[in-house]
Design goal:
Largest sheet: 4 strands, parallel
Number of helices: 0
Shape: globular
Distance between the termini: 26 Å
Order of helices and strands: EEEE
Number of strands: 4
Strand content: over 45%
Length: 83
């Protein structure tokens, strides 16, 4: 398990758990992938996982899931695919 956490003086907050991936407040250039994904305030072209929770402030171009997904009312998701 890897964990990265922002201090108050950093601009972006980053919290990542490898097994159950949680990412906060960053822009991801490629994709976020994992089994259980919970993200907030993330801009990303693709998010792919077994269960995906897209929280407030996210802008996701493509959400891919195999079991379930949840999208906050203040998140924007372009396309949703079941894989």
């Amino acid at each position: 398990t890897a964990r990265y956490t922002k201090r108050k003086f950093f601009k972006n907050l980053i919290t990542i758990h490898i097994k159950d991936k949680r990412v906060n407040g960053i822009e991801v250039q490629q994709s976020v992938e994992g089994d259980e994904i919970d993200i907030e305030y993330v801009i990303c072209p693709r998010v792919s996982g077994r269960t995906v929770t897209v929280g407030e402030g996210c802008k996701i171009e493509l959400l891919q899931y195999s079991e379930s997904y949840e999208i906050h009312e203040k998140a924007k998701v372009g396309k949703i695919e079941k894989i």
